[in-house]
């Protein structure tokens, strides 16, 4: 009985610790905020504000002493709208810039309106090289219509996740020990279910921490490329001479293709059929001609 009581008591203690850790999880807290387009939960509440600095005898304020802080984790991203002369060539140059700064193209799409090409492209570069990459991208544009560089400090959230992970891993170890010492099937299943839940929360926290680390290490740049209208062909009242010339050339080529196609059909398809259809008439004509010649020959002898 004592062993059973001790086992159940330990099990309850572990459950309390697990629930306490889960209650502080950012995945169950109220409220959302968006980072890099993904809905995430707010970080742990901020620490109480430090007491205001008290004035010294000479009337100046002395700042309170500060403890060494954790290295900041900042997620920096940028949005830019550029006007360019040749969209396709600029896309190639942007890919080169991403490669030069140990990054890559995340997504790219283009849309065409008449002869104008508009593009949307997202690339990632090393966070330490974001400013240098933006400087090179600006040089590609005739005009920078819009530029927005933003930073999101996720240090508090990351530290909170580390603390939660430590608590959950400790709870996992305790549950594992209880499971190994349990004798009854129902006790084993109960502990196993709790252990599965704890491990699921551990995986969630590790995934979130990995996302924050990768987002802080690689900055995202979202670009919109617009065609430069003055560099496009002249268009007056909807009339474009080069467009008319192209259409006329296409019509000429189509007409010539039609004539060539007609000749091919006549030679390969129509001519053999006409030959077959005319063959009986030719034979009849030859017979009639032979008969007429014979009659004429008889009349000449007579």
Low-confidence stretches: 1-6, 18-68
Order of helices and strands: HEEEHEEHEHHEH
The coarse overall form would be elongated
Sheet with the most strands, sense and barrel status? 5 strands, mixed
Main CATH class of one domain:
Alpha Beta
Helix content: 40-55%
- Number of continuous helical runs: 6
Rg to the nearest angstrom?
A: 42 Å
Give an account of the 3D structure:
- The chain has helices spanning 2-23, 87-100, 130-138, 155-181, 185-217, 241-301, and strands at residues 33-35, 38-40, 74-84, 104-113, 116-126, 143-153, 218-227.
- The protein has a domain at 74-150 and 219-231: Alpha-Beta Plaits, CATH 3.30.70.
- It starts with a helix and ends with a helix.
- It contains six helices and seven strands, in the order H-E-E-E-H-E-E-H-E-H-H-E-H.
- The longest helix has 61 residues, at 241-301.
